Amino acid sequence: MPLxxxxxxxxxxxxxxxxxxxxxxxxxxFRLNSILPPNYYCGPRVHLGTAIExxxxxxxxxxxxxxxxxxxxxxxxxxxxxxxxxxxxDTDDPIPPEYExxxxxxxxGRRLVAAVEIVSPGNKDRPESREAFVxxxxxxxxxxxxxxxxxxxxxRPANLYAELAERxxxxxxxxxxxxxxAVSCRGIRSRGRWRVxxxxxxxxxxxxxxxxxxxxxxxxxxxxxxxxxYEDTCRGLRIA
Length: 240
Hints:
The protein is of the alpha+beta class.
């Protein structure tokens, strides 16, 4: 089955991309746990940014806390109302959501060995968001963690993998011009040098997703079957 475009009509009007990004890490983790060697395991990790959201309607009605109270803590309304605030910023959530799968080696104190990062629109929309994502991936690579980036976001042109390559002073990758792609990266230290190897695939709407190597050690990997886990997710969510 082909990759769908979850960010433009008609599918974007029928299903939210958040449903895919929220469920896909679980499908990936279930499949990986069925093939990971003994002493390795993985689990999904979904962080949705700021957990508390203010009721904007309450602010617009002059009631930012949902009610007005007197200075004694009672419920009597008071007549004093503060002046309207000066608008400093009105933007998206400053903490983009994170959708990922983390693989651990239990033999070495639950050491993180691999991470699968599924890109969200919030990771690509602002320079500071892209900077945070790229810095995270770079840090993981420097800690000898295999990093897989899967970017299905078709409505934002930024290429986070290309920015990561620039950050580590590597040559522009083959998929630098593509807004959607999948890549597996690993850092290797040998003879006093650090090298980063990558397995790159451009994604195209209408074509199947690739299988990437997920490296557990320098010489041990398992197949990360993106197409199979993606289809499992789409079937579970009734995405045609």
